[in-house]
Design a protein that fits this description.
Elements lengths: L8 H14 L5 H11 L3 H29 L3 H5 L3
Pfam family, one: Homeodomain
Protein name: NOBOX protein
Keywords: DNA-binding, Homeobox, Nucleus
Length: about 80
């Protein structure tokens, strides 16, 4: 966790998720800005983004697998006379 001691963890997480939706790969300057807003070190921001990207890739992979297995080959059925 980023910082459970100060009681603002949900707000920190909300801000980080918002920033992640804007940019999955923030540069050093953006990480410093986010760190200042959230109240943690830029290093922790970098690690959070690495972990969040890994989670995002895992979810996307699961979605792709789920979508491809749920689709039926209707195009070949429709093209038959």
């Amino acid at each position: 966790p980023l910082s459970l001691n100060n009681g603002s963890f949900p707000e920190q997480l909300k801000e980080l998720e918002k920033k992640f939706q804007e940019d999955h790969y923030p540069d050093n300057e953006k990480r410093r800005e986010i760190a200042a807003v959230v109240g943690v070190t830029p290093q922790r921001i970098m690690i959070w983004f690495q972990n969040r990207r890994a989670k995002w890739r895992k979810v996307e992979k699961w979605r792709m697998r789920n979508n491809s297995s749920s689709k039926c080959p209707t195009s070949s059925v429709l093209s038959m006379p």
